[in-house]
Amino acid sequence: MASKLLGRLSAIVATCVALPLAFAGVANAHGYTTNVPSRAYLCKTGAVSNCGPIQWEPQSVEGPKGFPGGGPANGRICAGGLGQFAQLDDPRGGSWPAKKVTSGGNLTFSWTLTAAHATTSFRYFITRNGWNPSAPLTRAQLDPAPFYTVNFNGARPGSTVTHTGRLPAKSGRHLILAVWDIADTGNAFYQCGDVTF
């Protein structure tokens, strides 16, 4: 009887030790884009209202990695598949504030990381010509490959990350999807930013 009780106690202790370690990789990495200003960042700063809890957690748009083959479901990409951040998937009739950018020009992308993490890459996708800005984002609305990728090969970035890449030739309103791929968890961070060429 005593050995059974000791065995159960050991199992409980092992579980209590293992659970925080299992979730440590997910909980300690967070970030959002400030340029292009993401929808999450615009909610944080109050530039956009009626955002729900994302206004306090712009760094928490974390979902499964592997985009575009995996990751959040279509129509839920901007929220990383998280229901509590569904306001980010609402196109608001195409009225999200949009940063003015130059077709084919260079743009500096900036991330604020509230907790850094070993990183595979930062990747940037953009909507196709003729996409519908009044509909939630789907893979079919994006060019299939990222227009810009910055590889980190498992390195841990600092609290601010900037890199400059060339935008594709586009015109009118578009959406840029920034994906921060984490190296040592099954997740990535997703940020949607609206632009006008």
TrEMBL record:
Alphabetized UniProt keyword annotations: Monooxygenase, Oxidoreductase, Signal
Domain Chitin-binding type-4: 30-195
GO molecular function, one term: monooxygenase activity
InterPro entries registered for this protein in UniProt: Cellulose/chitin-bd_N, GlcNAc_Chitin_IntDeg, Ig_E-set
UniProt xrefs under CDD domains: LPMO_AA10 (cd21177)
Annotated signal peptide: 1-29
Database matches in PANTHER family: CHITIN-BINDING TYPE-4 DOMAIN-CONTAINING PROTEIN, GLCNAC-BINDING PROTEIN A
Protein name: Lytic polysaccharide monooxygenase
Organism (species): Allokutzneria oryzae
